[in-house]
Records
---
Amino acid sequence: MMRPQLVAMAVVMVLAVICGFGSGSVLEVPEATERPPLPPRNHRLNQTRSHMRNNFRSYTSPTSPPKCDYKEMMTNLHDRVGILVTLDEDQRHRLEVIDQKLDRLVESSSARMESMKVQQLDFKQRLDSFEHIQRLSRNTLDELKGETDKVFGSRPVRELKHKLINRLKMKDLSRTERDAPQDQYSESGIPVFNESSISVAQRLDALATLLTSTALQGRATQIEVGNLAKLIKIQLRGKGKKSNAVQPPVLYGPPEITGPASGQNLPSSCKNGFQSQEGILKLRLSPDSESFYVMCDGDWTVIMSRSSDNVSFERGWLDYRDGFGNLVGDFFIGLNKLHALTASSLHELQIVLEDFAGNEAIAQYSVFAIGSERELYPLSVLGHFQEGSETPAGDSLSYHAGARFSTVDQDNDNCIECNCALKHKGAGWFVNCATSNLFGQYITRNQGQAVETGMWWDTFSGQDSLKSVRWMIRPVPESSDDYRR
C-alpha cells in the first residue's frame, strides 16, 4: 500500500538533485581585462555600417543560472500522493464490501442447499406415506367389497343384473318405435306423436337421463356400503373387539364415503363439528372455499404438534406456507390455512409445553391471528396472556407480536446484522431475535442454557430443550368480552 508514496519520494529527491546541479554547480568564466576604447577611424563609415543589415545572429550569454522551483513541484507531488492514498483507501473499502457480500451470498446459498436437501427428504417421506395410505385404502376397499359380496352377491352377478336391466329398457324403447304407427289422432282431433317421431337429440337426452339415474343408483349403493361398514364396526364393538386399534385412513373419495352426507354441510372448526372428538376432521370455512383436514383435540384445532425428531422444522418458506408433516404425528398446519382459520372468526390460542422432567405448563392468549402472505404472515393480533391456568408457563410470545414470519431462506426479522432463522435453526416471528423458539431443532435430551437452536420457552424453562409442544386454537365464544370488542 506504500509503493505510491515511496515512488513519489524518490522522484522528489531526483528532481531536487537535478535542480541543485542546475543552480549551484555552474562554472563561472573569468572576466576579460578591460581595454580602452579605440578611437573611431571614420565616423561616417561607422554610421554607414550601423545602418547596414547584420546577417549574423547575436548571442547573448545568460547572465543568471536557470531557476528550478522544486518547492512547488514537491507541493504538487504531495497533493498527487494524497489523492493516490485516498483512491487506495477507497479501493480497499470497496474490496471489503465485496468480500462481505460474497460471504453473505455463500451463507445464503448453503442455507438454501440445506433447505433443498430437507425438502427432498420430506418428499421421499411423503411418497412413502402416500404409498402406505394407498395400501391401506386398497385393503379397506377389498374388505368392503368382500362384505358387499356377502350381502348383495358377487360382483359379476350384480354387473350381469345391471346389464340385463339396461337391455330390457333399451328393448322397450326400440319395440315402441317398430310397433306403433307414426301418427295417431285423438278423438278431439289433436295429433299424438309416438316414440318414432323422437329426434336423435331427444334420444341422446333420454340415454343421458338413464346414465344419470344409473350413477345415482351407484352412489346410493356406496352409501349403503358405508352404512353397512358402520354396522359391522358396531357389531365388532359389541363382541369386545377394539375398534380404535387402527386409525382409519383418510380417503380423498366421494363425500358419501369419507365425510357427511351430501345434504349436510361441513363444519368450520372442531368446536362446531358434529361432536367434540379427538381425531381427524374435515373442515370447510365457507361455501366457496376448499375443504381440508385438521387434527382436533376436543374443541381445539391443533395447528402444530412436536414430540419427536421424526420431522425436521428447519425448512424453507414454501414448506411453512403449505404445511408439512403427518396429522397423527409431528406436523405444522401451514401459514395459508392458519391465516384462513384466524381470518374466518376470532380465535384464542393455547400452547401446551412439557419438559424432559415431566413438568407441563400452559400459555394461553385471549386472541390470536396472523396476516396474509402479501404481508409476510405477521403476528398481527395477540391478546393478553391469561394466567388462570393451574400451571402457567409465563408470557414468552408477546415480545414477538407484530413481527413478520421468517425462515432459513427468507429473512424478515428486524435484526440488521444477523439472520435469526439461521441463528436458531428454525422459523418463527423473530424480532431481534427471540424469547421463545418452538420451531427450532428438536434435541432428544436437555442440553442446558447454552442451546439457542433447541426448542425452548424462556419463562418456563429458559433455553432448556423441551420434550413436547402443542399449539391449539378455537373460536372465541360470542358472549366473551374479547368477541364484543
Note: The longest helix spans residues 70-152.
---
Amino acid sequence: MRRFFVGITGASGSLYGLRLISELASYENNEVYVSITPDGETNLKIETGIEDLDEIKSKITAKSNVEFVDYRDFAAPVSSGSFKVDSYIIIPASMGCIGRIASGVSSNLIERCADVALKERRKLVIVFREAPLNTIHLKNLLELSRAGAIILPAAPAFYHEPKSIDDLIDFIVGKIFDIINIEHSLFKRWN
C-alpha cells in the first residue's frame, strides 16, 4: 500500500489536481488524502463549471481509497511525520502557499503537510501555475528546491501531439507519476 497527500490551493489549474486524484485513486493499493483550501474550492467551481463542491467531492470519493481532510484540521493523521505518506503533491500551488512553505509557516493543513514532507525528507512535488514570475517567486521556489522539494511547473510539452486539454493535463499528471514512481501511459514518450 502507498499513501499520497494531494493539496489543491488557490492557483488556477485545479483540473490538474482533479485528474491526479482520479489517477492515483484508480490504483486499489493507493490511499489518497485530499485537502482543498477555500480559494482552491473557488477555482474548482470556476474551472469545472460545477457550483456544488459536494458534487465534485462525491465523484472523487466514489473510490473508497480517497479521503477528504479539512484544510484546517491540524490533528489529521497526515499532519504528523509519524504517519507514513509516500509523496505529497500540491497541485496547483499558489505563490502565497509557496511563500509560506518556503518561510516555514504553516497556516493550513496543506502547508503543514509540506513542512512534514521537508522535515522527514519525503517526496514533495510542488506544481505551480503562475506566469510571469517575479523575483520573490523565484527565490521562494529556489528555497524550496534547496530544501528538497521537486518543483514542477504546469507547463506541458507538445511533442506528444496533444489533441485536447485532457492530453495536456495528462502530460503533467504523467510527469508527476514519473517522479513518484508509478508506471503509466498518460502520454507518448519522446523517442
Note: The radius of gyration is 16 Å.
